[in-house]
């Protein structure tokens, strides 16, 4: 018996769905196009309050201008340091702690897991966190952006579920061969966990790169500002102070709007470059850890 599959045309419901998706996509794309267009527009032909879908005259003047300022370079270095060091420590702490929680023989296993879940539901709040950072002497330090958030409950639970989905027979065989838990972790668990490591590396890196609120309350020295904090000053402050804090000496050299857009693009580019290399690991790395009970 053969079955004939009839191809059906698009229904009215399909057309409505496709139209809505297209409109939403355009609504999301147009702001990015505007930002890119203004950032590459020649300051001499830029007209305020005019919508630019494509630059009337291409120019890199705004990028040369913003990259020549000390404040932007310092902010970029600060953000890069926080992102690289913070992400590495996040991965180390999260995966080692999650691996320990997979061991039922760990003393106090249930209590530790209960504390992790407790932090997922309840939070101390902004003021206790600030007082803790202050008492530790971390205020106005890069470590105030790194140490308080070495890991989080959601990441631990997902990573723990991912590690539990790996075949336990591999560890048993390694232990029979004389490997310790630490050796088995680095030689067996870590190589098998590369999809999850790649996924959470991007999660943690994006979180550190886009960190704004913690930088706002912990970093008072403008020389240690992160990119997001500097861009906030450039974008929100519409007077000459914004340009002055960006290291400018003459605000008439380049229109402030083109400087804002150029700084936004420069802040987005690193993540846009890294993301395609880790995107293929998303589905495998996250889904395996999310469906394991």
Order of helix and strand elements from N to C terminus: HHHHHHHHHHHHHH
- Helix content class: 55-70%
Overall pLDDT level: 81
The best one-word shape is globular
CATH class: Mainly Alpha
Number of helices: 14
Spell out the CATH superfamily: MetI-like
Membrane topology: Multi-pass membrane protein
Domain ABC transmembrane type-1: 76-277
Family: Belongs to the binding-protein-dependent transport system permease family.
InterPro entries: MetI-like, MetI-like_sf
Furnish the topology, listing elements before pairings.
Blueprint: H1 12-39, H2 61-67, H3 70-101, H4 109-121, H5 126-135, H6 153-164, H7 168-176, H8 181-192, H9 194-209, H10 213-218, H11 227-236, H12 240-245, H13 256-279, H14 282-291
Helix pairs in contact: 1-13, 2-13, 3-6, 3-9, 3-11, 4-6, 6-14, 7-8, 9-13, 9-14, 11-13
Compose a concise summary of this entry.
The protein has 293 residues and is mainly alpha-helical. Helix content is 67%, strand content 0%. Residues 76-277 form the ABC transmembrane type-1 domain.
């Amino acid at each position: 018996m053969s079955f004939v599959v009839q191809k059906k045309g698009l229904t009215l419901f399909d057309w409505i769905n496709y139209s809505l998706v297209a409109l939403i996509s355009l609504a999301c794309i147009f702001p990015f196009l505007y930002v890119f267009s203004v950032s590459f527009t020649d300051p001499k032909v830029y007209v305020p309050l005019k919508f630019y879908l494509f630059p009337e005259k291409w120019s890199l003047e705004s990028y040369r201008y913003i990259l020549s300022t000390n404040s932007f370079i310092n902010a970029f270095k600060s953000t890069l340091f926080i992102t690289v060091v913070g992400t590495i420590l996040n991965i180390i702490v999260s995966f080692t702690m999650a691996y320990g929680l997979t061991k039922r023989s760990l003393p106090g296993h249930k209590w530790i897991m209960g504390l992790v879940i407790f932090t997922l539901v309840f939070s101390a709040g902004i003021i206790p966190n600030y007082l803790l950072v202050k008492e530790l002497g971390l205020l106005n330090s890069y470590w105030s952006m790194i140490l308080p958030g070495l890991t989080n409950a959601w990441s631990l639970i997902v990573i723990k579920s991912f590690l539990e989905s790996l075949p336990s027979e591999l560890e048993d065989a390694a232990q029979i061969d004389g490997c310790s838990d630490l050796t088995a972790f680095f030689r067996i668990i870590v190589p098998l966990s590369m999809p999850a490591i790649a996924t959470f590396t991007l999660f943690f890196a994006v979180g550190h790169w886009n960190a704004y609120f913690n930088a706002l309350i912990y970093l008072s020295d403008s020389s240690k500002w992160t990119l997001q904090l500097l861009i906030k000053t450039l974008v929100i402050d519409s007077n000459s102070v914004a340009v002055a804090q960006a290291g400018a000496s003459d605000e008439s050299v380049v229109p402030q709007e083109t400087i804002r857009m150029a700084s936004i693009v420069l802040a987005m580019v690193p993540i846009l470059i890294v993301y395609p290399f880790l995107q293929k690991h998303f589905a495998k790395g996250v889904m395996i850890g999310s469906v394991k009970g």
